[in-house]
Amino acid sequence: MNNAEQIIAAINFLNQNGYVVRMNLQKYINKWIAFTQRGMEPVLHGRIISVSNFDEFFYVKCKNGEIRYPNIEDAIKFFDSKKECYEFK
Length: 89
Prior knowledge:
Layout: H1 3-16, E1 32-35, E2 44-51, E3 58-62, E4 67-68, E5 75-79, H2 82-87
Antiparallel strand pairs: 1-2, 1-5, 2-3, 3-4
């Protein structure tokens, strides 16, 4: 069993025994994100300024100063630099 399979097995074991396993999204603060939102056709870009208390969504400041709240499922890709993020279409 490789490392990824062991992690998946451990997560499944914890879930079956009543534990809630979530990702720690705090590591993405100050990273750049490309994401989609319902009703918006193009890919949106912005900098993650905070994460919700229960790691359900991000607070993202976009280029036009607009604050958006994409869900985790809306994220397409994370970037370390602004240039890379805005080149992603």
